[in-house]
Amino acid sequence: MSQEAQTAEEALAGKTTYTLDIAQAGTALRKIPIESIKDVRSLGIDLLLVFSSGGQILLREGALEALVHPQRRLQFSDGVLTLQQIFTQSERFDFFNNDSSAPDGPGAAAQHLAALAASPEASVMASYPFGV
Q1: Is residue 132 part of a domain?
Q2: Residue 95 sits in which domain range?
Q3: Which residues, including other chains, have CB under 8 Å from residue 131's CB and lie 6 or more apart?
Q4: How far does CA 103 lie from the centroid of its chain?
Q5: Are the beta carbons of 29 and 81 closer than 8 angstroms?
Q6: Could you give the CA distance from residue 16 to residue 111 in angstroms, rounded to a whole number?
Q7: What's the pTM value of the predicted model, to 2 decimals?
Q8: Residue 19 belongs to a domain
Q9: What phi and psi, each to the nearest 5 degrees, are found at residue 76?
Q10: Which of 36, 42, 75, 79 could form a disulfide with 90 if both were Cys (CB 3.0 to 4.6 A apart)?
């Protein structure tokens, strides 16, 4: 097992926060299901994936890469998402109020990301937030 894949499994188990380059993420994220992502946060030029287990993976320069190469694809165990699809999730949630009764409460990120991975039409619509 590669170091990146082992890192991803430990993050998924909720052990700690790991930092990966986008190039390393290609290997590491293949073992992680999209539905395990609880939250996505943009931290400056980085992207933070927060898992329902409490673990986290920081994608170094992930937010910047999403702006420069939005169609770059990341393979998860249950689907493929572009960096743009992941990055846009960082703007959909109130990170200071994790009220589960809110429409975009905990778990909403995973549901929306899974829907994006499953639907080719959704990926086109994510590119045009105000309509086609």
Answers
A1: no
A2: 3-124
A3: none
A4: 19
A5: no
A6: 23
A7: 0.64
A8: yes
A9: -105, 175
A10: 42
What is the rounded distance in angstroms from the CA atom of residue 57 to the CA atom of residue 115? 21
SS3 category, 10: helix
Domain count, the chain: 1
Task: Please check whether residue 23 lies inside any domain of the structure.
Answer: yes
Mean pLDDT by groups of 10 residues along the chain of 132 residues: 58 74 87 90 91 90 93 92 90 49 52 63 48 40
Q: Tokens for 120?
A: 């080719």
Residue 64 burial (CB count, 10 A): 18
Residue 60's region, left for phi above 0, alpha for psi from -120 to 50, else beta, is beta
Which residue(s) pair with 75 in the sheet?
80
Does residue 130 belong to any structural domain of this protein? Answer: no
